[in-house]
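Example record

The entry below shows one chain as it appears in the dataset: sequence first, then structure tokens.
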Amino acid sequence: MNFVYAFGGLSFGDLINQRREDLGLTVAEVCERTGISRTNLRALEAGTNDNPTMKACIALSDVLDMRIGSMALALGMKH
């Protein structure tokens, strides 16, 4: 069962960063588990890459135990 994350207006980057930290995961751990490069994950979290691939979103949703819909809503939020 996926965690329903109440993001309260967080941007996509803030959302995945906060959820990663809430789970006590390092950037390296998330990269290893998702196959996303460290550079790309840092760019996603910083908001400098606001166009993640579907593959990246699915991998992040699995590792961070989030619903894709919550992530999609956050992608629509302005930074």
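Notes for this example: The chain is about 60% helix and 0% strand. The two ends are 29 Å apart (CA to CA).
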